[in-house]
Design a protein that fits this description.
Layout: H1 9-16, E1 23-27, E2 38-41, H2 51-59, E3 64-70, H3 73-76, H4 78-87, E4 92-94, H5 96-103, E5 108-111, E6 121-125
């Protein structure tokens, strides 16, 4: 068993398979899951694990070159908006319906237990060199 980092074997394996430009959707419990991408459902109960915990855990493991979120997050979920702004100064905002459409191209979906609205972000993987 790993001593540090991501312990969930499904998530650790899925992250190891990602390459440059692949998309990772980190979503709340209410986001529709698109058909096609690999899904790692971490939701245990409402709020567990939180969107913040999952995003920060993934950022410790991934190189991210861009992020896209729903514009509605600014008004509907200031806590999630603050987290995204802190980590992604060049965050792209699109209407929620567009984010759902873009999510269908993700390589991986990581579902959190988050129960607040619009706690979703589509990450674009970068490279470490």
């Amino acid at each position: 068993m790993r001593k540090a980092g991501i312990l969930n074997r499904h998530l650790a394996g899925a992250l190891a398979e990602l390459g440059h430009g692949h998309g990772v959707l980190v979503c709340d419990a209410g986001m529709p899951i698109p058909e096609g991408p690999r899904v790692v459902d971490l939701a245990f109960r409402a709020g567990v694990p939180s969107f913040t915990e999952v995003v920060e855990g993934l950022l410790a493991e991934l190189v991210v070159e861009g992020a896209t979120a729903a514009a509605e997050v600014r008004e509907a979920n200031p806590a999630a908006a603050g987290l995204l702004d802190a980590h992604f100064p060049d965050l792209t905002l699109v209407p929620h319906e567009e984010l759902k459409r873009l999510s269908s191209g993700a390589r991986l979906v990581v579902r959190t237990g988050e129960a607040r609205p619009y706690a979703n972000v589509l990450l674009r993987c970068g490279v470490f060199f």
